[in-house]
Amino acid sequence: MILPQFPIISMISMLFCGLASAIFNKKSHKLFLSIGFSLVSIILLWYSSSYITEYGNINYSFGNFGKYGISFKIDHLNIRLSAVTILASLWFLIYSKLDKIFPLINIITFGAIGLLYTNDIFNAYVFIEVISIASYAIASCYHNDKPKHLYCFNYLIYGSIAATIYLLFIAFIYSFTGHLNIDQISLKLYLIPKDLIIISLYIFIFAIFMKIGFFPLHFYLKDLYGNINANIAMFLSSMSSGVYAYFILKIINSLYTNIIYATYIKDLTLLMLFVSSLYYCYIMIRNNYNYENTIAYLAVMSVLNYIVCIMFINNNWLLFLSIFISDIITKMAIFKYKDTNKYFYKLLIIFLYVGMPFTIMFFTKWKIIEQLYNLNNYFALISLIILWFCSFYGLFKSMDSQHIHHNNPKYFIPLLLLSLLLGSLWI
Amino acid sequence: MLEIIYHKLPYFASIALMCIGLYMALAKSNMISRLIGLGFMQTGVLVFFIAIGKVNGAIPPVITFDNQEIYSNPVPHVLMLTAIVVGVALLSLGIAIIKQTHKYYNTIDCKEVTKIIKGEK
After folding, report:
1. Residue A372 to residues A77, A318, A378, A423: CA-CA distances in angstroms?
2. Three-state SS across chain B?
3. What is the ipTM of this complex?
4. How many Cβ atoms are within 10 Å of A424's Cβ, its own excluded?
5. CA distance A191 to A260
6. pLDDT tens-digit map of A83-102
7. Which residue in A122, A150, A206 has the most chain B C-beta atoms within 10 A of its own C-beta, making it the best mutation to test that interface?
8. Rounded Cα gap, residues A134 and A107, in angstroms
């Protein structure tokens, strides 16, 4: 039966697409190939999703070595995230028109899907490096004005140090459990001393936080995102945030469920995700004076983050408060543009980012509110609705004033601090 | 103490390599030195990985039919082959970026390049 093979076929097709599109010189050929493969992958994932609904999760094991082989586990969550990842790259391909890097974008998508599916910690390392090497190459291709390869080099060095620390985590786990498969490790991990488990958790968290540049470890990404092409920065930031956050939560949920404060680390991860997204968003917007790019890429970034958030919804209303404050700051930052005549775009931005009906964000926000209602968390629900209206009003007023709204740090720093405070209280 | 060091020599060597590599990658100003430091650090982890696959009194996992039953674990060696390939890919990309930096700024010293970038701004 071919239906259970569809997720893997979609993943391999992205790799094939990346390699094949490198052969062609013409932009139209590359674009046609990439769009074709991406659409086919999305259709395959659609059918796979319905298969999983009917028959349950799909498990693959390679090499026929039983419990020692590499295995992939595909469930409702990662199949949807992989579809979103392909959509994000498709959006980038159509919109950015940076045809030189189409093959690399497809390879990043392949790596991201692999990272979502894999159930093996070393295999995850390989996919992390596939994503990383392609990201370093992309980052050094296009710059805002003059090439600033030093920042790309720093990106490579710090990213590689993080990957090496992740390798150390694998060595640590393997030396105590003798397994690389996440399911097998989770069965053996409780046999080793708790202190060692905690050390391994710290190593893992540090490695991945550094890899994606989560808030305290974001120092090396600041210059990079500010100086490379805004489209690429948006793509790299959104892709890495969504996929790696899923990976962190997957490892913590699978291996460290018995550690008391693993749940706090999970929550901290989510909080860091949104704070770092906010930070990069602001940097990228500051360096980008193009409405279309902002609309396109902020939408992708936000949707990726929201989907991760919806999947892991708990009773954490403060997290959502932080998210929405972040949203408001982002929206405020949008109005730092030189071109004030394009009212259509301004209106479109308001519709997209306030989440007015029939936009993507409307459905995601509606889903969050629905879940909060089901959890009987009315305080969070009312807070979110108030924030929603506040953001709409703020944007509307900014548009109405018909002048450029230069954002002074004094406007957004208090909100950022409030967001952090709320987050830390909740932790 | 010396006996412990002697028996755990690969582990100490790997820690030393990782520390030297980390220092070079972070503290050095020359881009080539930083890249070499990264290589050192990766090598340290490779040594650590291979050391955990060694079993005392065991032979390499090749069937010799001489009643030797204990074999060392070959899996870490296989895994590290992949890690070496990844390391080489990173090294080549790093060298390409250094070459581009030299082309535009005529230097590969991070401090000097930073000064030039700041001067441009």
Report:
1. 19, 12, 7, 18
2. CHHHHHHCHHHHHHHHHHHHHHHHHHHCCEHHHHHHHHHHHHHHHHHHHHHHHCCCCCECCCCCCCCCCCECCCHHHHHHHHHHHHHHHHHHHHHHHHHHHHHHHCCCEHHHHHHHHHHHC
3. 0.91
4. 12
5. 16
6. 878 887 887 787 777 778 88
7. A150
8. 7
Is the pLDDT at A328 greater than 70, yes or no?
A: no
**Closest listed residue to residue A74, CA positions, set A242, A249, A250, A241:** A250
Answer for the pair A23, A50: CB distance below 8 angstroms, yes or no. Answer: no
* DSSP result, A158-180: HHHHHHHHHHHHHHHHHHHHS--
Name the residue with tokens 């540049």: A213
Q: Which amino acid would we find at residue A151?
A: Y
> Quick check: A67 contacting B, CB < 8 Å?
no
Nearest CA in chain A to B99: A149
Q: Say yes or no for a CB contact (<8 Å) between A167 and B49.
A: yes
Contacts of A146 in chain B (CB under 8 A): 104, 120
Q: Do B97 and A133 touch (CB under 8 A)?
A: no
For the cut 70, the answer to whether the pLDDT of residue A252 exceeds it is yes
Which of A122, A153, A157 lies nearest to residue B101, judging by beta carbons? A153
Residue whose entry in the numeric block shows the structure tokens 């709320």: A422
∠ Cα A392 A395 A401 (to 5°) = 135
Give pLDDT tens digits for A127-172: 999 999 999 998 888 776 677 788 888 899 999 999 999 999 999 8
Sign of CA dihedral A367, A372, A373, A374: positive
Q: State the pLDDT at residue A7.
A: 85
Contact A219/B at CB under 8 A = no
Those of residues 256-315 in A touching chain B at CB distance below 8 A are none
Which residue among A150, A163, A164 places its CB closest to the CB of B114?
Answer: A150
Within an 8 Å CB–CB cutoff, is residue A161 touching chain B? yes
Rounded to two decimals, what is the model's pTM?
A: 0.78
Residue contact A129–B79, C-beta within 8 A: no
